[in-house]
Design goal:
mainly beta; 307 residues; 2 domains; Thrombin, subunit H; 47% strand; 3-stranded antiparallel β-sheet; single chain
């Protein structure tokens, strides 16, 4: 299906895009698969979306049955269905991932996080969108894209849907490799609170790692309505055997009925919150190891690595 009329190509008119590189990244971002994304390089904001289609040279590809790829030692060609006939694309002048413009994800953010996205949301032209794919054998794929434009589809399976065309920055594709890492399993008091340290919830710290903590909480606490994904909160860990508290700022990354994973961002030092360093983490971990019942556990965390 023709997407729209005359368009600005995202390649050199004479050379075209590298079909081989495009084909190589598609297994990590398949049509119909859910993805996560960071808007404008904001790693502390993670939103959900889905790859609705690919758009190649102005034509929409809604499923894997709408195209095939033929690779030889020298060339890579896309064959697409146009009016019921298969045609070979000799030169790719544009290729986009197509995702929904409105998914309701921004409404899950707190006021501060929404304001960081700006009045027009994350999909302003030329905005960066970092796509995070699903776990593969190589690790978790991550690739930068940029917003080309948002359009209203006039026909096809998603007629009258507003979608966003994402221009691929294929050379940024990397994988978050799994590596062996120690984390602590423990059960000690921790208090979380929200804006201006209001609406506190008494929780238990059950897991501590270099980048995140896992907490458990009573699912009947009335303040749980403030537990919203990507919301910033305050963390007060009671290091009772060290006779002190570790006060930090984190972001809600994952939430269940009675547990949550919080990404750690900052720590309080001399009444000022500063970026959390490895030395800070080691200090807290050392103190936690002195707590009764603390034990180390081998866990897989992620680090980026170019393919």
């Amino acid at each position: 299906m023709q997407l729209f009329g005359k368009q600005k190509p995202n390649s050199d008119e004479h050379l075209g895009l590298d079909a081989k590189k495009i084909a190589a990244c598609l297994p990590y971002y398949k049509i119909g698969e859910k993805v996560r994304y960071n808007p404008e390089f904001k790693r502390d904001i993670v939103l959900n979306s889905i790859i609705m289609a690919y758009a190649i040279n102005g034509h929409m590809l809604y499923s894997k049955n709408d195209f095939r790829i033929e690779e030889t030692n020298e060339n890579t060609f896309f064959y697409i269905q146009i009016d019921g006939k298969e045609e070979r694309i000799n030169k790719i002048t544009s290729f986009y991932f197509v995702i929904p413009e409105q998914s309701g994800e921004e409404s899950k953010l707190d006021v501060i996080r929404r304001s960081e996205l700006g009045p027009d949301g994350p999909f302003r032209p030329r905005n960066s969108i970092t796509l995070i794919g699903n776990m593969m054998e190589k690790g978790v794929p991550r690739m930068d894209t940029s917003v080309y434009r948002a359009i209203l589809l006039k026909g096809g399976y998603y007629s009258n849907y507003r979608v966003v065309l994402l221009d691929l920055e294929i050379n940024t594709l990397e994988f978050l490799e799994r590596r062996t890492h120690y984390r602590l399993q423990i059960d000690i008091p921790v208090t979380i609170a929200f804006k201006n340290k209001t609406h506190p919830i008494a929780c238990r710290l059950v897991d501590f790692s270099e980048e995140s903590i896992q907490i458990s909480f009573p699912n009947s606490d009335p303040n749980l309505e403030h537990m919203v994904l990507n919301r910033q909160l305050y963390i007060d860990i009671d290091l009772e055997q060290d006779n002190r508290h570790a006060n930090m700022i984190g972001t809600i990354y994952r939430k269940g009925t009675d547990t949550a994973v919080i990404m750690l961002n900052k720590i309080e030092k001399n009444d000022v919150y500063t970026a959390l360093t490895l030395l800070d983490v080691l200090d807290i971990k050392t103190a936690l190891l002195q707590q009764l019942g603390a034990k180390a556990d081998m866990s897989d965390l992620e680090k980026p690595n170019k393919d």
